[in-house]
Amino acid sequence: MNRPLSPAQLEQALTAKLGELLGQVAWLEGWSVRHHPGNLVNGFDFEVRLPLPKNREKKLWVQCKTDPRPSQFPYIDVARESFPSPVLVFAAPYISPRMAEVCQENSWSWFDLAGNHWLDIPGLLRLQRTGRSPVHKSPRPTANLSTPEAGRVVRALLAPANTGMRWTQRHMAEHFGELKKPIPDPSLGLVNKVVRYLREEAFIEEANGGFQLRDPLKLLFAWRDAYRFARHERRSYFTLLQGKKLREALANLDSQTGWFALYASFSAAEFQAPHVRQPKTWLYVRQQEVSKFEELVEAKPVDSGENIVVLIPDDDGVFYLADGGVAGDMRMAATNEVQTYVDLWHSGGRGHEAAEALLEQRLKPEWKARGMK
Q: 89 exposed, middle or buried (CB, 10 Å; 0-12, 13-18, 19+)?
């Protein structure tokens, strides 16, 4: 990586990079750059004028930042009704995928020095490219959302039953041990690291001395993409129990294990947002309870012909249930909807389809009902 650029060098380099991107459009000619012209709102660094037929033009107002944070966007509050013509463009040495999302959500175009870009100029062109490695500046260190400890924080934030809750870091660290079915608490230091990262990425926001969820959908997608489903051991079983007898056996297992056995993946989705029907029963069972499962469900390990899929988690976080987890009606409880979603996404088969159904039928309506977008 090269040494960080000074503000003047950065502006010069970004001007050249934008010129390079526009220069790839063969028919686009006669455009010009003006640095700090008097018509710019304070905070923008240069203006690009693109000629249009009949003596018209499009203006790009470009703002340059050395180390942008999604939580601080927009850096300039521009009333678009006052400036209907300019296309607002954000530029930096490195723009993370999350930063790009935030720009586009706010109708800003963007580009970085590596040539990653989204330039949407209405009525003229749209250019897009991503995936190029950063230059001149390394991306900031980030929290690892794939770790079991980070997963506990994310589950608690995203659980529909917790939507709208104001958290403090200490409350978050102690929350898991206070549940009816306690699971190990993440350390306060780990919570601090994850919360700082989520705040900078604009997934959460400040709220009366604490923090609360801001963008549940994008946080769900970020966790889904980081989630390592393959860490869970998968075992195949066959049982002769069916229908009511199987449900009763599983409900008995649920209570005898202290709720450390749950319907998972496709089977959890059948209760939360029925969409994809399939013949197998999917379960999470804690390692210590597997022999009890085999006994109560009369299940035998098989190499083929399975009708029960048991996932043995590497972390008890999958058993997190914000509402206590008692299903009632003599039925085993299911994983919380957020856990079900990410498991479906990684379960293969028609998992993506089932995950999308759960998102549209259950998660989005519940978030919306509690005032989240």
A: buried
Q: Where are the alpha helices (DSSP H) in the chain?
A: 7-23, 97-105, 148-158, 169-175, 188-200, 216-226, 243-256, 265-272, 290-296, 337-345, 351-358, 364-369
pTM of the model: 0.78
Least-confidence region, from 210-224, 285-299, 307-321, 325-339 = 325-339
DSSP line for 141-166: P---TTSHHHHHHHHHHH-GGGTT--
Write down all domains in the chain, each with its CATH number in brackets. 7-129 (3.40.1350), 148-226 (1.10.10), 230-369 (3.30.460)
Cis peptide before 74 (omega within 30 of 0): yes
Assess contact for 135 and 2: CB atoms under 8 A. yes
Query: Residue 250 and residue 71: Cα distance in Å, rounded?
Result: 45
Q: Could you tell me the end-to-end alpha-carbon distance of the chain, in angstroms, rounded to an integer?
A: 39
Q: Encoding tokens for residue 69?
A: 């944070």
* CA atoms within a 13 Å half-sphere pointing along the CA-CB vector of 144: 6
Beta pairing class for 299-301 and 281-285? unpaired
Count of Cβ atoms closer than 10 Å to residue 38 Cβ: 5
Of 258, 264, 286, 278, the C-alpha closest to 336 is 264
Give Cβ neighbours of residue 40 (< 8 Å, ≥ 6 apart): 46, 47, 61
Tell me whether strands 46-52 and 56-64 are parallel, antiparallel or unpaired. antiparallel
73-95: pLDDT as tens digits: 877 766 554 555 789 999 999 99
Q: What is the pLDDT of residues 144-189, one digit of tens each?
A: 899 998 999 999 999 988 988 999 999 999 999 888 878 888 899 9
For range 293-306, the mean pLDDT: 95
pLDDT band at 2 (very low <50, low <70, confident <90, very high): low
Closest C-alpha to 15, from 54, 52, 60: 60
Q: What's the whole-number mean pLDDT along residues 247-271?
A: 91
